[in-house]
Amino acid sequence: MYLGALREVGVSPVLDERYGYGEEDTAMRALISKFRTLAIDGVLTTNTPEGEAILQRRLSEQQFTIPVLTTENVFEAVALGLMPPSELSTPIDSLLRPPSSEFVKIYEKRFGKKPLMYADTGYDAVMLLAQGVSAVGADTKKLKEYLRGSFTYDGVSGEISFDQNGDVKTADYELQRVGGIPSEGK
Questions:
Q1: Is 13 within 8 Å of 42 (Cβ atoms)?
Q2: Which of left, alpha, beta for 89 (phi over 0: left; psi -120 to 50: alpha)?
Q3: pLDDT, position 28
Q4: In this predicted model, what pLDDT tens digit does every residue of 22-46 receive, in sequence order?
Q5: 158 φ, ψ (degrees, to nearest 5)
Q6: Which of 55, 58, 146, 183 minimizes the number of CB atoms within 10 Å of its CB?
Q7: Any idea of the CA torsion for 87, 92, 97, 103, to the nearest 10 degrees?
Q8: Which residues constitute the domain of residue 58?
Q9: Nearest 10 degrees: CA dihedral of 47, 48, 54, 57?
């Protein structure tokens, strides 16, 4: 999926490496050697939070500064304490965005720790549901109709707009079809 998207925008991937969960530490050392040999311009990674922490640690240890385009898992790695923010020694661009700084402050004050990625959108989902119950009551049919209405919700994660079908118009998300999953009833 990512390789095709990269090619569509004119990027020529030079390395596509995959490794199993738990193999990150060994794999990262070898990958960084390949990065140096190939003189690559940047890295696109979709690691787990653990893998992100290991990649950043190895890049830092080997004093190898290269732009890294990643998912939110790099922020999860910091929030989970898998790596200190000081290990983010490489330029990081996220495919997604971390929670708003205002939400982070309020969350930290209340819970004594940083929120995980999507905590703000999860909060908005609950508040939007509460707004719906307040507006039309707890009747599921009425609530469903309310949530399918075309409106904008100003939440802690930002402004969220819905179309006439109740689909979010302003979110960063993607739908993927995964093969090999049996249909219901089969």
A1: no
A2: alpha
A3: 82
A4: 777 788 888 888 888 888 877 777 7
A5: 120, -170
A6: 183
A7: 30
A8: 2-96
A9: 80
